[in-house]
Amino acid sequence: MPRLMTASTKLLLLAVALFSLPAFGHTIEGGDASFVEAIDGPAIGPFIYLGAKHMVTGYDHLLFLLGVIFFLYRPKHVVQYVTLFAVGHSITLLLGVLANLQVNAYFIDAIIGLSIVYKAFENIDGFKRVFGFEPNTKVAVFVFGLFHGLGLATKLQEFDLSENGLVINIISFNIGVEIGQILALSAVFLILSVWRTSSSYLRHSFVTNTALMTGGFLLAGFQFSAYLFQPPF
Amino acid sequence: MAEIDSNSPPSSKNILVASGISLVVALIVLFSFILPAEFGKDPLGTGELFGLNVLGLEENPFEEQLIVHKTDSVEFILGPFESVEYKYLLDMDASMLFSWVADGELYYDMHAEPAGLGEEYAESFEQGNGDSRMGSFHAPFTGIHGWFWENRGSSTITLQLYSSGFYVNSTVFRDGGSYERELGAVTD
Predict the structure, then answer these.
(1) Domains and CATH numbers, chain B
(2) Taking CB atoms and an 8 Å limit, are A225 and B12 in contact across chains?
(3) How far apart are CA B164 and CA B69, in angstroms?
(4) Is residue B97 within 8 Å of residue B163, measured between CB atoms?
(5) pLDDT tier, B136 (very low <50, low <70, confident <90, very high otherwise)
(6) B57/B77: higher pLDDT
(7) Nearest residue of B to residue A131 by CA position?
(8) Which residue of A has its CA nearest to B29?
């Protein structure tokens, strides 16, 4: 039974990594997009919702967080790392939009893909065993948080956001992102906790993280291709 | 790749091999499937092989029409609480440009009815109050497409509509009746 479970979990991971390709370009779309453009003035509720939705449906952020908490067994440590990540992306989300930093969205999304590769490589002890040293994991999560925040900022900047109520709206979006993150993380942590009760967790952690790394490479490759072949927004 | 013995940590060789495989798998998927399907590039010919190239085609901004387009200008005078409905017969994917201006505020409802299905399948695109609207319209289905205007004020209002498009003719619905208007091609 445990064997079966890990097999299916691995399949699920692979499915997430490989078969969600058509939805790769993760942006705010359709009705949400026209709503964001039409807004003039503070709209706390809608922006919180959009932030949360962006996070819950954003597998690039989710895969990275999966990598981050993969070897964190205690809720206290999860909170520590996720707080570092949240502080990092909050800084660049707010600064990016307010200072109108113009960064290519595809380029940032490619780096976000590589952050997944980095975390997976760290999880299979790559730095320790191949390079003989391990970069500070907390600093790494914080720095990648900064990049993820820039990614969030580019998504909001694709729109002509009204100056009216801009700060409140960005902060609302940010709060939404944190709420969405807590929701998604709780689900991931629960699933991991169940899987951890089986001995196969450690046995398959190497393969799982390699699959995670593949997902990261794919995301990065997709975004680099978009950077090369598609005009910027 | 081989199952790792749970008692011994992965060797640096294992890690490098796994990372290499990971990168190669990602590159294979990228070049064989994602590039053809998403970006219209087919470096390995796999897009052709799996029929993925159709997904990567960019939408062509040009859309061919088979008839010469027509142009129309029409004026309605609406007394207090009078209303009129004016619709163009458009095939699916036919476009038109329009501007209407009035010398007072009117309630308007831009909507369409699919051909042969009648009012209960009517779809509304925009409603509001104003004295002018300008825009372009791309017919989502074959049918009659146009406006309902109502003067909800107490003074008489003159409304003028100008449009050009690939419509066939137009129909005026007013005072419980309706009549068609023949419209000339721009080349006539």
Answers:
(1) 12-56 (no CATH), 70-182 (2.60.120.680)
(2) no
(3) 7
(4) yes
(5) very high
(6) B77
(7) B12
(8) A218
